[in-house]
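Dear colleagues,

For the upcoming journal club I promised to circulate an example of a predicted protein-ligand complex. I picked one with iron/sulfur cluster because it came up in last month's discussion. The inputs are reproduced below in full, followed by the predicted structure.
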Amino acid sequence: MKKNLLDFSAHELNLFMKEHGVAAFRGTQIRKWLYQGVDSFDEMTDISKDLRAWLSEYFTTGALKIKRLLKSSDGTCKFLFDLGDGNYIESVLMKYSYGYSACISSQIGCKMGCKFCASTGAGFVRNLTIGEMIGQIITMNKHRGIRIGHVVIMGVGEPMDNYDNVVGFLREAQAPDGLGISFRHLALSTCGVVPGIRKLSEEKMPITLAISLHSPFDDERSELMPVNNAYPIEKVMDACREYQADGGRRITFEYAMIKGINDDKEHARALANLVKDLQCHVNLIPMNDVPGTPFKKSDSVTVEVFTRTLERMGVEVTTRRELGKDISAACGQLRRSATEESGNAN
Ligand code: SF4
């Protein structure tokens, strides 16, 4: 298996070149090409043919192969990438008034078992490497001729379950000679893995931390999200308070509105009481219908009442814009259909 050169940091790449008898500055030249999303080493015109031949024999450039691309009428694109080892991952590209934002995956599948999520039903295969996460961004940039300026790690996978690679990705994403995206424009969403939140606060990276909460009640949350059995709500809130006290930025609480399950006034009041002592905002997510589950989207009046209840109790709340409605296969479904087509049982 060839090694992905995007897995190397700038320092590691220069060192690696030096160790192999190649001038270290060649590493800097190569890295520049890699971040332009080149598919082939032959495109690296300022390095020798011999070096290009050696690189192609043992390495890949990290640009991903697009297996499928769904385009919405509002400009949202959903990419299915072929990782070349029989596995596929999804990323979503969205266009906002402030520029392009990407939602990327951090794992192939997920172990967390959230009941409303199609990613978990397709099983867990492996973690993504740093290079595979960067590869999602540079391939979308190259394919669309754009520069993605915001990234959320909110696609398939639980980022804290792939902690080292995710933190490595965040560093490379922020590096001026990497993707050059400021920490303020990077966000990570976790289902509430407390040790991960604690570790992240020690990294001193001013990214946005998002917590997928979805219920303010432990018994109900444990039903929806088994991770709550290990890390109940109060422990998650304690970790959030510590994260914020440690210099972390405003926290976002993600709350999928599920019809008849978590969308009444009692839930809104309990949610407000839970989060109101934190510098935070609640992001209500219109739920995607997930085939094979009983979960349906709350109606707009219910969402409105929920929003007003939170606001009256002093909580800042937004409702996520429904982008890509016409390609709104829930997270993980595209990958699942591709793996089934290719006969992979994962
Ligand atoms: S919602 Fe996130 S953490 Fe939960 S199963 Fe899906 S991908 Fe994993």
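Two points we might discuss: Residues 110, 112-114, 117, 119-120, 156-158, 191 surround iron/sulfur cluster (CB under 6 Å). The chain has two domains: 3-60, 66-341.

See you all on Thursday,
B. R.
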